[in-house]
Amino acid sequence: MDSKYFISGKSTITVPSKRKIKLNDLTDQKCLYLQTKQLSGCSIEEERKKLPVFNCRDRILKELETNDTLLIMGETGSGKTTQIPQFLLYSAHARNGVIAVTQPRRVAAITIAKRVAQELSTTVGDIVGYTVRFEDMTSHKTRIRFLTDGVLLREAICDRLLRKYSIIMLDEAHERTVNTDVLLGIVKEAQHKRCIQKLPGLKLIITSATMDIDHFGKYLNVRGMYLEGRTHSVRVLNTKEHQADYMHAVLVTVFEVHRTTPINHDILIFLTGKEEIEVLAQQIRQLAKINSVGSSDVRVFTLYSQLAQGKQLECFLPVPLNTRKIVIATNIAETSITIPGIRCVIDCGFVKEKSYSPTSGLDILQTVRISKAQAWQRSGRAGRDAPGTCYRTYTKEEMLSFENSAEPEILRANLTSTTLQLLALGINIQDFNLLDSPNVKCISNAYTTLENLGAIKSAKLPNITSLGRLMSQFPLDPKYSKLLLSAPTFGCMEEMLSLVAVLSTENIYVNPPDKMELATLAHAKFKSKYGDHLTLLNIYKCFEKTEKTKLWCHDNFLNIRNLIYARNVRCQLLEISTKLGLSFNSCGENLDSVRKCLITGLFGNIAVLQKDEMVLTGRNFLRQVVEINSEWVEDVVPFIKDLSYINIEK
Ligand SMILES: Nc1ncnc2c1ncn2[C@@H]1O[C@H](COP(=O)(O)OP(=O)(O)OP(=O)(O)O)[C@@H](O)[C@H]1O
């Protein structure tokens, strides 16, 4: 082993804990791994016909003849997502409508659609297409449509029987997103109603490599179907000892792999969030620069949800010869996706999980241990186009204490948006037969918030109002749709469209770790004394006025891709608003209108608090957003229920 590999420089790098590591420190450090499992595998084969699922084609089609619902479990990479829709394409089952394949994440929907289009020698938007929020790449020719579960749920609002579809495949069901859970119930109901109304049937296929098949089976009243076989073997290694600093363990492992494996073995690293990812990316780039292996190179890509879509897709492209691709991702890369070239996965064993606190009414982001199912999904990202290895920076014993699967999102999420969508479908969430029933307090909070937004008449008797129905037409959080629906009255529709578009976009700021001060200075130019919302609006307005947008964004440390994305979102929101007959007006420089309008939507958010907390938070909130001014109160009161809790004059 060439331990000198690490020590050609004297530079230091900063790790998140602000601890400085000397490159020399890494020399003697190695994470000792123990091989814990060798997943049995077949020989290396790349053609789709050699995928294990291929042998099950006839079995699947036959099962569908006698069953309306199939529950299919097969190994990661066995070909479920890419192949099953193709088996169905020319089958009798797909004669009466489009095949929908849902994915919990947009990046998966897009990349799989591209792959399947490639396999069918067509282009995306032809026979195969995808639809994700604010982007539709389908046409009247599209027969297989990959879409996020959120998009399909939204479509159900317009047509509860989902008549456009002949087959719906809910993929990655183990992820237990709220949307997939709700869709299970909706599709089940659509199957039943279509049968009663003698409409063409609807087949439902649920797929995953790691779902709790008994639980699903009981709910759907079907037996599970197992597809045997694995495409390529994945060697799984756990650290011998507990690693107190997983970032450090990951870094050491990256360079061990870099030093000891062929340069075309690309690496995928799982960390918990953007900050960690950016820090590690910088460390790897710095270390690789001064420690190159011969003429080889390292290209580091990052993959997390706040990245602009175009940037997220960069890691799927091939890199030049003699270059090792290193992708550092959050759990967004955990299921479904194939990043070509990945032979090695390094899993830190943690994930950031969003949960909703029914007592405070706030969403909390916490770093928690992954589940066993997530660990297997992560290792499954290696061994897709060749045998692979997965390094886990936790011990085998530690893994024993992991939960079998992550807690379903429906048991820990803020349910306001889902509750409104269901109400628009005529379904009361508390009466809806779901795979797991949500917490009663979460449901009552959702009703209270919707009541405060004016979307339902009363939390006790949750009948959707006409305003609520309009709100459900926007693919937005209800508080943002409320803003758009209130804006014409306040005379600030143009401004609110821009603001909501920016709020629906990932971070528009660029904060390079080495130029933090310059970036802060540049951003300060746009700062509004009335808070973040008006600052964002300022930025968007300046962006639209600028001709040389690229240079302007660069000079102002702003993300051009995300601002362009916001512009597209704005166009679509404008389209929906026009369809709903909303008038388009502008308040010009009089931003007081925007501030007043903001109260109508954002207030709903804090309204689930206890009365005492609400008085306090409400007052602070009003202070932040508006001047405490009785004239304003007159304007906003009709939009807010229960404002009487707050003594505005104080
Ligand atoms: N974008 C892609 N680029 C290259 N190869 C791909 C791509 N997508 C899929 N493949 C190939 O097809 C195989 C099957 O992928 P597919 O996504 O259908 O499997 P899966 O059983 O659905 O896996 P998972 O349970 O992990 O989602 C992969 O192992 C890989 O060899």
TrEMBL record:
GO terms for molecular function: ATP binding; double-stranded RNA binding; hydrolase activity; RNA helicase activity. The keyword Amino-acid biosynthesis does not apply. It is an enzyme of class 3 (hydrolase). The gene is LOC115630499. Transmembrane segments: none annotated. InterPro entries: DEAD/DEAH_box_helicase_dom, DNA/RNA_helicase_DEAH_CS, HA2_WH, Helicase-assoc_dom, Helicase_ATP-bd, Helicase_C-like, P-loop_NTPase. Its EC number is 3.6.4.13. GO terms for biological process: positive regulation of transcription by RNA polymerase I. This is RNA helicase.
